[in-house]
């Protein structure tokens, strides 16, 4: 009798998104719980965020910071520029960007986790930046932003969570103006990830 090779099930995108939302909703609600990744002000210092960047940003927003890099290390933003922050979380990068581009500039932060967006909007109001920054619910693979709107797209620790990175990068390109800038802080691997590992939800959620 011939052996039958059975394909292992592929990862369901809806299930993955739900797991990621649950993980980061926990970061929003219980930032001091302890996670398998760094968070908060200690992480910002580790990533060499300048203290003055965080001045005026509420501590609850900073506490739920869970990035993996520093998109501003690639260059500070200029007054008057338009910025899209993909996967903005609790808003720390969007608010840093808003401070750099204000008062004439504009920032749109996009995230799929409602509790993170709630913290981000509250932080923007407390920082007096609600006329500069707007937070929208959405996915990186379908950004709720017009074509060619942005001078700069920033993202921090989000691209590694997406199963369809090509779609996300295509969306970033779509919303950028010609000759716009892409400033990403993220995780890179030097070896191919085995298919079996790609199907493990817990390896995607952080």
Brief sketch in words of this structure:
This protein is of the alpha/beta class.
How would you portray this structure in words?
The structure is a single chain. Strands 3-2-1-4-5 form a five-stranded parallel sheet. Helix 1 crosses helix 6. It contains nine helices and five strands. The radius of gyration is 18 Å and the shape is globular. The protein has one domain: 3-Layer(aba) Sandwich (Rossmann fold), CATH 3.40.50. The protein has 206 residues and is of the alpha/beta class.
Key features?
Rossmann fold; alpha/beta; 9 helices; disordered N terminus; five-stranded parallel β-sheet; 206 residues
Q: What structural category do the secondary elements indicate?
A: alpha/beta
How are the strands ordered across the major sheet? Answer: 3-2-1-4-5
Mean pLDDT, to the nearest integer, reads: 87
Q: Write down the Rg.
A: 18 Å
Categorize the overall geometry. globular
- Helix segment count? 9
CATH superfamily: Vaccinia Virus protein VP39
Task: Tell me the number of strands.
Answer: 5
Number of domains: 1
In CATH, the architecture is 3-Layer(aba) Sandwich
């Amino acid at each position: 009798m011939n052996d039958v090779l059975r394909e292992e099930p592929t990862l369901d995108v809806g299930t993955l998104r739900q797991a990621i939302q649950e993980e980061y909703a926990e970061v929003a609600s219980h930032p001091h719980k302890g996670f398998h990744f760094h968070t908060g002000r200690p992480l910002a210092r580790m990533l060499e965020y300048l203290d003055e960047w965080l001045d005026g940003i509420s501590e609850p927003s900073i506490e739920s910071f869970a990035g993996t890099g520093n998109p501003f290390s690639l260059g500070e933003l200029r007054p008057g520029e338009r910025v899209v922050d993909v996967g903005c979380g609790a808003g720390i990068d969007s608010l840093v960007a808003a401070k750099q581009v204000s008062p004439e500039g504009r920032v749109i932060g996009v995230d799929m986790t409602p509790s993170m967006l709630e913290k981000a909007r509250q932080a923007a109001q407390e920082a007096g930046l609600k006329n500069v920054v707007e937070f929208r619910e959405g996915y990186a693979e379908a950004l709720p932003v017009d074509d060619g709107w942005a001078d700069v797209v920033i993202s921090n620790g989000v691209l590694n969570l997406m199963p369809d990175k090509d779609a996300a990068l295509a969306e970033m390109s779509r919303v950028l103006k010609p000759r716009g800038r892409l400033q990403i802080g993220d995780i890179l691997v030097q070896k191919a990830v085995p298919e079996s590992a790609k199907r493990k939800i817990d390896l995607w959620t952080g």
